[in-house]
Structure formats: C-alpha cells, structure tokens
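Example record used in the benchmark description.
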Amino acid sequence: MIMETPQQNRCGEHCSIIETAAKILSEYPLCDRCLGRVFAKKGIELSNEERGRAIKTLLAMKLYTDYTSEIIDAEYIGKIASNTGDPVTRLYRKITGREIFANPCHICLHRVSSDYIDEIARRVAVKLSELNASSFIIGVKLDSEVVKKELDVHVLTGLESSESLKNELKREIGKRVTQLTNIPPDFDKPDVVVIVDVNKDFDYSIQTQVNPILLKAIYFKRGRRISHVPWFTSNGSRKYPESIQDFIRDSIASLFDARDIKIHAAGREDVDARMLGSGRPLVIEVKEPGFRNVDLDLLNYILDDQFIKVSVIGAATRRDIESIKEGSRKRRKIYRVTVLTEKPVSEGDLEKLSSFFKERSVKQRTPMRILRRKKDRERIKRVHRIEVISVSSRVFEALIYCDGGLYVKELVHCDNGRTTPCFSEILGTPAYPLELDVLYVEKA
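Model output (structure tokens):
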C-alpha cells in the first residue's frame, strides 16, 4: 500500500480546485472576482479577485501542459478562453495566432470591480456625512435574476467553499466607506443603515434608513389637564392645551434636527392627575435625527419647565421599550387621592377603611368613562394598604399602595357597582375623588 505524502495531498487539493474551475469555466464565463468567490474559503489573506486571478493563472499553466502532452486540443482551450479571459486568451493567441475575446461575466457582466465598489462607497460616504452619522452598516439587495445566475454557478461546487456576491459587496463597500470616512461599522446599533439596491444590469441606487435615537428618561407632571399625547376632539380641535409628547417634541426636536419625537411610557396617569414623587419611566424616540450628539446636561436643562419636567438618564434600547410596556401593568404604584364624601365620616370610619384595605383584592370591570376605547373585561387587582388623613368631616386624603393598573377613581366611587369593594361601599356613603396624584412608580 502506497501512502500519499502531505505534499501529494496538497497537490491533490490544488488540482481539484483547478479541475473544478475548468468545469465551471467550460459552462459559464466568469470574471476573476466571481470565480474567486466560488473558492472563497480556500486560503486566507486573499481577496476574491486575487484568488480568482491565481486560479486562472494555474489553469492556463495546466492547459498548456495538457496541450503539449496532446491531452487536449486548441479548440478546447478556445472554449475555456472565451469564458476565462486573460491569461487563457493569451495562451490561445500564442498557440493559434488567432485573437479570441472573453464573454461578459455570467454573474456580474464584468461590472463589479474595484472602481465600481469605490464609486458606491464614495456616494455612501457623502450620505453618511450629510446625516452626521457616527456608525453605519451596509445592506445589499440583489436582483433575483442575479441571485439565480450565481446559484447556477455555485451549485457546481456544492456551495461548501463559496461566498455570495451580496456578502462580498457588503464587506468590501463597508471597508471602503470606513477608509474614506473613518466611521466604523456597527452591526448591532448602527446610526444609519445603508441599502445598496442592485438591478440585473448592475446599475444601483442607494437608500438610507436613519435609526432613531432612544433615550431613557423619567418624567414629572406638576400640572393638571395635561394629556400624555395630543388629544383631539371629533371636530379636530385640541381637547387639552398641552401634552407630554408635545412638550418633549417642541423642546428638543430642533436640537436633533429630527423628523419627529415619540414617547413610550410605563403606563399613563389620567389627564387631571399629576405625576410627582419618583416620576414615571419613559423612553424618548428621536426619529430620523440629522444630528445625534446632543449634550445630556443641555437636554435636561431644556426639558425642565414649570409644569413638566423630563430627566434624561442616558441611552436606551428597544428592549427597554418592551420592558416598559410589558411591565407597566405589573409595577406597583402609590397614589394620593383627595376624597369628598356625601355624608360626614368619623375617624373611626376612616380607621375601618384603612383596616379593610390591607392586602385586599378588588374586582374591576373596565370603567364606564373609557368603555368607548377599551374592551369591557374584568380585572382583579390588589390594594396592599392605604393610609388615611382627615381634612374635614367630609374630606380626607388617602395614600393608596396598590398593583399597577388599578383604577383609583373607581376604587373611590364604585363606578355604579363595576368596582367592588370600594370606598363608598365600606364608608356607607357616596364618595367622590377630587384630586389625584401619582407619587411612586415601582422600578423595573
């Protein structure tokens, strides 16, 4: 038994590459780059163009050896030459004295070159500069006809060592953009996503998607009749003069040169309720910013007004938005409510109320006041405890520590029996909430 030496093994692999290349080039014309991609995982520190050129050179050497050994004839070399180009066309001209011209590349039509990539990269660099981007990522969209042509070629090798044209373009354009701009790619949270859309003739267009800036914040609402987002009546007029979202948009949109500002909060209080104490968690979404580097201290200075204050903590993520929305109904809260009773109530009545609502479950159907915009269903929430202070014989203040999502006004007046138990029920007299404040929202 004769064992192969390591040198013979390596030669066998190299010969296999050349034989595979000859098989491909006997059917499809390919440029250096497109041929090199077929063998992209063979060797390191080589560009696909260098790899393809090297394979063509070795192929030309083998063709010449086979020709001089009379294994193949000039006609076969001519067939390969028309699909290979230089240096096989030079070999054919040398042995026949006849000129032969290479066919256009089956995949890229000989359009994808260093100049082509450089041209795209320069246009991308200009767009990133206009958008004041500090990071980016390249995406490539190829015409389906180009993808099919590439697949026709790559299946001849089993796709084990190949790389897609899409992947090469993303990598090479991205590298060149970074060289031109010193802007690094960011594969997780890029400022700008650049999409290069390539048609079947390899003409291209460039679109950009400016990713929003997400800011983690807390807001405080010191005034009443301030809605969460703009609230309009059926005739198009504003129901309330101010909203949290309007305040933030009007205050900082111009600083970021942003198209719009959107807010994501951990629930929302009623329009006539204040948000005090610990404040309510919030994520500010700055859409399509033209400028991204705004000083945090400046933001917080601008977002501190008489009735609304927003404290920006730092950068947020999409996961923070999901966490805020998922947890808004689960986070416990403390409310302060001023209550008016129809009949006088004693200190004993208030002690009874406080004692009753200790770890008490409360059944609530969707309040009548919001049935027009929310589905009617029953919720069970827990009041953990309340503390009550008498103000007068018919007025008292209650601090209510409860589950998130509890309707506090309805806890006071029963909502025509849709909330039970409630203050009116326990006190034996109708009770009405006069003023409501949120003092605490549990952190995630």
